[in-house]
Amino acid sequence: MNDFFGALYKDLVNRLKEKATDIRFIETDLGQLDYDLRPGLAYPACLIDFPMTAYSNLGGNRQEGEVTIMLKLCFAVFSASSGNAPDEAKNKALACYAAEQQVAEALHGWHPDYCTPLTRTSATTLERYNEIGMRVRCLTFVAAFQDLSMSPVYVKKRAGVAIVNG
Questions:
Q1: Whose C-alpha in 57, 79, 81, 156 is 20 to 30 A from the C-alpha of 64?
Q2: pLDDT 10s digits, 77-112
Q3: What is the DSSP letter of 92?
C-alpha cells in the first residue's frame, strides 16, 4: 500500500459517519484548537491525527508500523451538569459521554483489511479548553500495518530462444 495514512483517514471518516451518528463534523486535526477562541466547527466535532508511528524492519526493505491514531472529540458545552440542575439540562450536558461511547464502539476492534484491529489505549480530557466553553476528549487508538511500498519488485521473465537461419 502506497498511501496508508490517506486510506486510513478516509476509512475512519466513513466508519464514524456510519456508526457514530452523534458526531456532526469530522476533519483532519490541523491545529484548529490552538487558538484562544472557540473554533468555527459544527459540534460535536472529531479531529483526526496520526501523531506517531513506530517502525521496525522486516528485511528486504519491508517495514512493520504501529500507528497512533488520535481523535479529539470537541463539544460546545451550554448546559449545567451540577446536582441541582434539572434532569433535561444534565442530560444535555452529559451527551458528550454518549457520543464518545459511540466513537469507541465504532472503532475499537474494527479494522480495514490492510491493518490490525484498532485498540483503544487511552481516553483523556484536555482541560485547557474549559475556559472557552468547550469540552475536549482525546481518544487514542493503535493499529499495526506492513509497509511493503519500498521493497524491490522482482519480475520473472521467460527466457526466449530465437533461431536464425543464415
A1: 156
A2: 766 666 666 667 676 778 889 999 999 999 999 999
A3: H
